């Protein structure tokens, strides 16, 4: 069978060339994603600030009852010292007055000098801080600012900006690559931490002869004894796990990259499977006459299937020899681009192991075998007599099972999108992007029927308006519905997929802006380009002339549950995003669409819940709810109001005074300001801007929040990586479209030869082909528009309240114009090549 498959491949090189190219491109794309994904999973974030410790008890975010834990651990015989660490956000200000962000999206934190031993940070300049107005900087930050011992640096911390004298510069054995560290005196650090439980971690330093594994077990036993088996928001880590404890709330560049690559890898695999299946089906469908002859000389169906399967396996193996090295090369190129663009640190190594290449080859082989099996199964059912009797091999019809499956797929997608439009199903852009893939599958299954309907509705009415060549093209398309479907399907895939990905972010952004406009009563919104805004800004803004109300918005996370769950109530627990605002300012600053209760009753012991959280908890106004904070403590509140405008905002609104002491980060994300009636709004704006000059990184805007925060490493990674991989996927689908068009046009050599023998000139035949290509694009654009509309209209209805979605007009116009150009150019070039021979030679070649 291998010899027969090899001989048929040798004789049918042209028919398998397109399949080979498609498999190579699919392997390049999937191998690149797999190599990057494997590199991301293998990349380990090195321990930096805790590198000098043997065991770390890390709080997430705080270590409850820290002093009791330090006392217990210090009493262990193998422990040299247990050191508590205080951490709080702080950012240095450069010469231009802008906050200096830590590299790769890491934290910039202040600490007590007593915890420098956890690095251990060793002074290379100056001395330890002896006064509350002195600090020690890590060497990387000092170099970034261009300062040394004896210089002055401005730092913005929880209490706002202050000038400090640099008493020294210190470095650990491993230079920090993902964070900046500033060390204060113990008294100043405790003041700036400003929390009831300021300790973020306890580092355990072992004696010289101690066994680390045994010490860790002892530490775990003490943690269990102190906090109980129910545990606390702490982790015990040693070895490489210390980095996880150190950066527990900061995604590493490797983890961000792995998340993105995983998503696009799955997407690439879907597109590759889709295109490979279509290309192999076309390659087999073009050989129905040959298969009929084999069946006529007593070849069995099983032999036909095994022959085609072996051919597909041989083509896959040959494609792997080119595609896998090409994919590794693309991965190297993407890695270099991301490192040069400062999205990934130079220390991020690309790991090219055997797992990723072999996995992609196996997946490609499985997809090719499944596609060839489906195509061979249809082809082997062709009756030899029918094939030999007809001048052209008959196209197999569409079966009822395929129709039923396609209808079910479209119905399922329609039900899901209907739930999105009605608000019964959350998910936004993620659900939309998933549904477009489902819709494409449904369109592919029903492509012959949909193309027949589209031809009758879209193409046939154009016939009287077209010249003679165009009218002949309409007739050809209507009679060769299967060929039209095979050409339209990859076009619909490329157009609808790209169009949806372009428009979903636009609709999502418009929905967020609409929700923000509805929710905000504030005239001014203050944002930050740094880690946040110090609470002092809102306090001082509230005292400005002409200001009716001002409050910062403090973001927290916690778990909501019914306080009466132990008494037989519901036991639902909701992981919630919480926002703390000054209670007295809420009615002046926010219109939350309250449907029950009143936000005016928001106080020290009350909370306002969003609709979604209230439904999940099954609570109403007056019911008690419990908040389990990230610091391990718990508070109980009464529901004062239930509001409907919780989309993109918060699951619960709490009074600032009650929540601030539980915040892991005391800096506020935004500050809302309302101008008093009759006051000069421009004067208030000027006052806020003057105040912002004293708080580096703050920006004063109008009544809608602007994301003034400069992109973090993870955001840059998302933007750049999405751009690169989306370009790669679109290039793949575009080449697949060209491939399919080339195969279908080259397969019409007999038809073109007959037209030439009948007296048609080459130019006339080419014009017919060009009109067919153009009308095919019209059908593809119509179907792609329906797919996009099926996804975007429900999404726009849910997010913006309008059934008319916002569109990325420029890119969509380029896409709609580029598709016909590529299609017509491809068909014309292949048709010209096919007609280079004399008509009689072409007919003889086609028959043979």
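^ structure tokens above, recovered residues below v
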């Amino acid at each position: 069978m291998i010899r027969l498959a090899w001989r048929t491949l040798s004789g049918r090189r042209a028919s398998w060339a397109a399949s080979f190219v498609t498999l190579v491109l699919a392997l390049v794309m999937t191998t690149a994603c797999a190599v990057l994904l494997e590199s991301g999973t293998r990349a380990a974030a090195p321990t930096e600030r805790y590198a000098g410790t043997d065991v770390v008890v890390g709080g997430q975010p705080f270590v409850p009852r820290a002093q009791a834990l330090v006392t217990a651990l210090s009493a262990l015989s193998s422990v040299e010292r247990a050191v508590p660490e205080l951490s709080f956000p702080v950012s240095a200000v450069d010469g231009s007055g802008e906050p200096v962000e830590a590299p790769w999206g890491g934290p910039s934190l202040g600490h007590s000098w007593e915890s420098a031993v956890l690095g251990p940070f060793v002074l290379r300049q100056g001395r330890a801080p002896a006064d509350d107005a002195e600090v020690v900087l890590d060497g990387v930050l000092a170099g970034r600012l261009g300062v040394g011992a004896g210089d002055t640096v401005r730092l913005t911390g929880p209490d706002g900006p202050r000038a400090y004298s640099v008493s020294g510069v210190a470095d650990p054995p491993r230079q920090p690559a993902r964070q900046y560290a500033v060390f204060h005196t113990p008294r100043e650090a405790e003041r700036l931490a400003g929390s009831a439980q300021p300790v973020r971690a306890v580092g355990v330093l072992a004696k010289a002869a101690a066994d680390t594994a045994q010490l860790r077990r002892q530490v775990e036993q003490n943690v269990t004894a102190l906090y109980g088996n129910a545990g606390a928001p702490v982790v015990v880590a040693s070895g490489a796990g210390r980095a996880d404890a150190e950066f527990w709330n900061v995604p590493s560049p490797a983890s961000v990259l792995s998340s993105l690559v995983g998503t696009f890898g799955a997407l690439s695999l879907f597109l590759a499977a889709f295109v490979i299946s279509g290309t192999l089906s076309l390659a087999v469908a073009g050989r129905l006459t040959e298969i009929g002859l084999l069946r006529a000389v007593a070849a069995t169906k099983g032999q036909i299937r095994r022959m085609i399967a072996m051919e597909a396996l041989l083509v896959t193996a040959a494609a792997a020899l080119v595609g896998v090295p090409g994919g590794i090369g693309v991965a190297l190129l993407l890695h270099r681009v991301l490192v040069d663009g400062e999205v990934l640190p130079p220390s991020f190594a690309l790991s090219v192991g055997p797992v990723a290449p072999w996995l992609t080859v196996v997946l490609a082989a499985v997809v090719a075998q499944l596609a060839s099996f489906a195509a061979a199964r249809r082809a082997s059912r062709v009756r030899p007599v029918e094939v030999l009797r007809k001048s052209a091999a008959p196209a197999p019809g569409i079966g009822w099972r395929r129709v039923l499956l396609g209808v079910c797929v479209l119905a399922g997608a329609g039900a899901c999108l209907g739930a999105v439009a009605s608000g019964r199903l959350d998910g936004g852009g993620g659900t939309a992007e998933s549904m477009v893939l489902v819709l494409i599958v449904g369109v592919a299954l029903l492509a012959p029927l949909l193309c027949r309907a589209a031809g009758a509705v879209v193409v046939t009415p154009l016939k009287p308006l077209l010249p003679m060549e165009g009218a002949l093209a309409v007739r050809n398309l209507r009679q060769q519905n299967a060929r039209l479907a095979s050409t339209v399907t990859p076009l619909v895939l490329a157009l609808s997929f790209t169009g949806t990905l372009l428009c979903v972010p636009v609709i999502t952004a418009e929905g967020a802006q609409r929700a923000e406009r509805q929710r905000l009563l504030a005239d001014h919104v203050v944002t930050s380009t740094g880690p946040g805004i110090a609470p002092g800004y809102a306090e001082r803004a509230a005292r400005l002339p002409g200001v009716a109300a001002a409050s910062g918005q403090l973001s927290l996370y916690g778990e909501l549950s019914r306080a009466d769950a132990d008494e037989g109530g519901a036991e639902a627990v909701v992981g919630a995003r919480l926002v703390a605002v000054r209670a007295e300012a809420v009615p002046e600053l926010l219109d939350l669409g309250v449907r029950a209760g009143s936000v005016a009753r928001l106080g020290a012991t009350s909370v306002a819940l969003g609709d979604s959280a209230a439904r999940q908890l099954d609570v109403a106004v007056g019911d008690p709810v419990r908040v389990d904070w990230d610091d391990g403590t718990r508070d109980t509140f009464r529901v004062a109001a239930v509001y409907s405008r919780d989309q993109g905002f918060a699951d619960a609104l709490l009074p600032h005074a009650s929540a601030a002491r539980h915040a892991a980060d005391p800096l506020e994300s935004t500050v809302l300001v309302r101008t008093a009636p009759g006051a000069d709004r421009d004067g208030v704006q000027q006052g806020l801007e003057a105040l912002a000059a004293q708080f580096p990184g703050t920006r004063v805007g109008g009544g809608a929040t602007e994301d003034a925060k400069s992109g973090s490493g993870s955001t840059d990674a998302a933007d750049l990586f999405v751009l690169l991989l989306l370009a790669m996927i679109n290039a793949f689908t575009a080449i697949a479209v060209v491939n399919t068009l080339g195969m279908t046009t080259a397969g019409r050599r007999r038809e073109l030869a007959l037209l030439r023998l009948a007296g048609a000139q080459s130019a006339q035949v080419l014009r017919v082909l060009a009109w067919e290509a153009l009308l095919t694009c019209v059908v593809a654009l119509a179907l792609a528009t329906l797919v996009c509309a099926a996804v975007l209209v429900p999404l726009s209805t849910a997010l913006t309240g309008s059934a008319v979605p916002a569109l990325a007009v420029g890119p969509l116009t380029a896409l709609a114009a580029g598709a016909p150009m590529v299609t017509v150019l491809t068909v014309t070039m292949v048709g010209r090549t096919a007609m280079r021979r004399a008509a009689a030679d072409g007919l003889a070649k086609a028959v043979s």
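Residues 301-340 form the longest helix (40 residues).
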